[in-house]
Amino acid sequence: MGEEKKRIIVGATGASGIPLLLQCLRMIQMDDRFESFLILSDSAKLTLEHETELKLDEVTALADYVLSPKDIGAGPSSGSFQTEGMLIVPCSMKTIAGIHSGYTDNLILRAADVTLKEHRLLVLAARETPLSSIHLRNLYQLSQIAEVRIIPPMLTFYNKPEEIEDMVYHIAAKLVEPFGVKAEKYRRWEGI
């Protein structure tokens, strides 16, 4: 009997950045030590239509399991559902506010709340610009929780990207790296 795979909950909300979600799911899929549980908000589905040419079933095929945000009784709503943690990519400021306040009216927010209470890793690809003082307050206060990693999708140029896909890959690798997911082409800063 094979070793159990490590579970990563992957939420996607209505901010721009669906190509990052796709690349993160591919990276998790390629690492046979992990499996993903995808929760797409209705707003994420709208953003998917706007930002890509993909159909919903093409995206959900990248995940091992797909859960409805309305299914508040699904596994990730309980701390007894063992996971490595949760990644939310993209993560809207509405979702940040919900996590910050403990407002859990859907499975994405409930799973994030459970992730925090169980002291598991919560990675947030926070997407907004410019940031208001309210956004900054919420992000700052979440950043004070040891298990929270706020990784805004920031462009980097030290890896000399040749096309947008190179930048998307690099950012996605940064988002999944805290869980131990390997990204073969990820280039770390090695110094000057």
Description:
- Its EC number is 2.5.1.129.
- FMN binds at residues 14-16, 41, 92-95, 127.
- It catalyses: dimethylallyl phosphate + FMNH2 = prenylated FMNH2 + phosphate.
- The protein has one domain: Flavin prenyltransferase-like (Rossmann fold).
- It has helices spanning 18-30, 42-51, 56-60, 93-101, 107-117, 133-143, 164-176, and strands at residues 6-12, 34-40, 65-67, 85-91, 121-126, 148-150.
- The mean pLDDT is 95.
- Helices cover 38% and strands 17% of the residues.
- It has a 6-stranded parallel beta sheet with strand order 3-2-1-4-5-6, sandwiched between helices.
- With 192 residues, it is α/β, with parallel strands linked by helices.
Give the strand order, joined by hyphens, for the main sheet: 3-2-1-4-5-6
Number of helices: 7
CATH superfamily: Flavin prenyltransferase-like
Shape: globular
**Do you know the CATH topology?**
Rossmann fold
The CATH top-level class label: Alpha Beta
Distance N to C terminus = 47 Å
The biggest beta sheet is recorded as: 6 strands, parallel
Q: State the helical fraction.
A: 25-40%
Low-pLDDT residue intervals, each spanning 5 or more residues: none
Q: Which architecture would the CATH scheme give at its second level?
A: 3-Layer(aba) Sandwich
Report the average pLDDT across residues. Answer: 95
Number of DSSP E strands: 6
**Tally of structural domains:** 1
Radius of gyration: 16 Å
**What pattern of helices and strands is seen along the backbone?**
EHEHHEEHHEHEH
Domain Flavoprotein: 6-173
Family: Belongs to the UbiX/PAD1 family.
Catalytic activity: dimethylallyl phosphate + FMNH2 = prenylated FMNH2 + phosphate
Binding site for FMN: 14-16, 41, 92-95, 127
